[in-house]
Design goal:
There is one protein chain. The protein is about 45% helix and about 10% strand. The protein has eight helices and four strands. Strands 1-4 form a two-stranded parallel ribbon. A two-stranded antiparallel sheet has the order 2-3. A hairpin with a 2-residue loop joins strand 2 and strand 3. Helix 2 packs parallel to helix 4, helix 6 crosses helix 7 and helix 6 packs across helix 8. It is globular.
């Protein structure tokens, strides 16, 4: 990438920086197939467990992810990752009856089944969520269109698939999907 291309990038990642609105962690309620999701991260992670022929436990887990009160909790639940925060984190602090994250993850982990086609459909699911997010919120749509023809980069040091990764040479799939969506919305 040349110097000029780097200068014309729009980078997003952290909630205290410009363009955080492009992040999946940005709270922007959206309706997808009649269900309201708090963020695109909620939608994306929950879809791992919402598919044709999902069993009762898998659908229960899907609904719990949808009710998480932060995108990070939705991500941890979607990845079924027990962690130090989950020992004291309620899934939703306004709904304590839903339980503690780690307890719920542990309870469901042996019963729930990830969509067997997940690897094949995850980009489609991300795209569908982004279309919903940016077409249902005119302020977000305007912000996205306002980036002109600049490259969009999720500047995540943790993710070299959806973002740029630690070495800044990641695949940046999220940024590429946003560029594609921007062209479509024009």
């Amino acid at each position: 990438m040349s110097y000029d291309q780097k200068e014309s990038q729009v980078k997003f990642f952290s909630n205290n920086e410009d363009y955080f609105e492009f992040s999946n962690y940005y709270l922007s309620p959206m309706n997808v197939d009649g269900i309201i999701y708090h963020s695109n991260e909620h939608y994306f992670q929950s879809q791992k467990f919402n598919y044709n022929n999902s069993d009762k436990y898998t659908l229960e887990y899907f609904k719990l992810i949808c009710q998480a009160d932060t995108p990070q909790k939705a991500k941890d639940m979607g990845n079924q990752r027990l962690n130090f925060r989950g020992t004291s984190w309620l899934i939703n602090k306004n709904k304590p009856e839903l339980g503690l994250m780690n307890d719920i993850i542990h309870k469901y982990k042996t019963f729930v089944k990830l969509n067997p086609e997940w690897d094949e459909i995850r980009i489609y699911i991300m795209h569908k969520g982004l279309v919903s997010k940016f077409s249902q919120n005119q302020n977000l749509k305007k912000l996205l269109l306002g980036t002109g023809n600049r490259m969009l980069t999720e500047d995540s040091p943790y993710d070299s698939y959806w973002g740029s990764g630690k070495d800044k040479n990641g695949q940046n799939i999220l940024g590429k999907l946003l560029v594609e969506l921007r062209s479509y919305l024009h």
